[in-house]
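#struct-pred

JT: dropping the chains for the assembly here, can someone run the whole complex?
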Amino acid sequence: MRVVVDLELCEGNTKCMEAAPEVFQVRDDDKSHLLIERPPESMRERVKKAARICPRQAIKLIED
Amino acid sequence: MATTQTTNQELSLDTLDIISDEHYQRNGYPHREWAYLRRHAPVFWYDRPNVDPFWAITKHADIISISTRPRVFLNGPRLLIFPKQPGEGPPAGPDPFRHLLNMDPPEHGQYRGLINTRFTPRSVRKLEPEIDQIAKRVLDDVTSHVMNKVAARGECDFVIDVSSKVPLAVIAELIGAPREDWDNLFKWTNETIGGSDPEFQQGASTGETLDRARMAMFQYFAELVSRRQKEPKDDLTSVIANAKLDGKPLEPFELLSYFFLLVVAGNETTRNATSGGLLAFIENPDQWERLRKNPALMKTAVEEIVRWTTPVIQFARTASEDAEVRGQKIRAGESCGLFYPSGNRDEDVFQDPYRFDIGRDPNPHVAFGIGEHFCLGANLARLELEVIFRQLVKRFEHFELAGQVERLRSSFVGGIKHMPVRFETRRARN
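RK: done, full complex below.
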């Protein structure tokens, strides 16, 4: 599983960081930066949640 | 906004009304009708003489599913479901403005990108001291004539005296509009949102009222823009006035439309969330007490106020190609009306959806929409509500209705025009 954040869409709403702080970090540029590009299976549910609740729908999960 | 469920008559798919302006003015939100649709016909072809037909979308999941396919379901062709006005012709021609609400990808993203950094949670948070000052000033005015007593009673029209004033001041400050122009901005907003309401028509038709307001705003902002092009400041007007897309300045029509959007969207929505929020507390005094005892609930309270009031009733999406929603085929060219307040009472998503619960968590409401067109001002609206209700809880012991709640004649924005309240201030003020 690979995570992609569309930085054109992202507006720093920080919902992803609340759902999965090990994976997403919103920095001073108001964009969500990936701390891990390929999160382990154990984080799948929380990463999925982050993608689901992102107000701008900027997060995509790509299955390898 | 609470419903008035006075009628016991049987609903039927052939006759139920979710779109006439009068219905909203008289009864508030048609929650009973929406619940019926969610249960019996969640993707319902609404075909009546008073409106161009559309698919009525009432389920939370379907609102999300359509909103998150912005290249299939477009905003441009039909911005919202506009009922035909009795005695007037059908709403004419293309929209007389072009802004974020009726733009689609990729253009929408380009225009949004010009100012969206000003509306992120981080940027908005910096405005808190200023918004706090605005709210304090507005409430000082309301209580000034009674504040020399220890615990005083008074009355006001909460909409006119409080909930309309704060958002107007905030958006006017952001735009950089001088204070002497605020009354005009207020009037134009009322005429734009309440174009089909006789109170704002002053004898004109709906179309004339909308045109009058738009022309006045375009004229006003054309002048403000030209001032900021000569001498930029640190306000939103300067950003938009001097913005470039692909190296070129914005065309005047799109440029002026941008202001039209900011003023209207920035005013009416937060105003109605504030009025509807206070009304919810008046109707649920236990929740008012709960917030007073535990101000740490403010964040979830604000989300619940937004869910409960859901000021924007509907926007439309039009299929650019054949598509499916909940197994129903939507043909290219057909429109869907997304009824956000219905999604926010969806029994499949919210436990006890008709309960106003300021501790509700999670609260995945869709009052701000989701995806491409997610409300640009959502974080600003949240902050304004937080600041206003923090002040209300601090300063007031008690509110009650002192007269009739008057609703806006509109099936687009759930407006409260007038709400007379009686209040009692708290003993210690700060």
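JT: nice. Chain B touches chain A through 18 residues (CB under 8 Å). Residues 1-6 of chain B have pLDDT under 50 and may be disordered.
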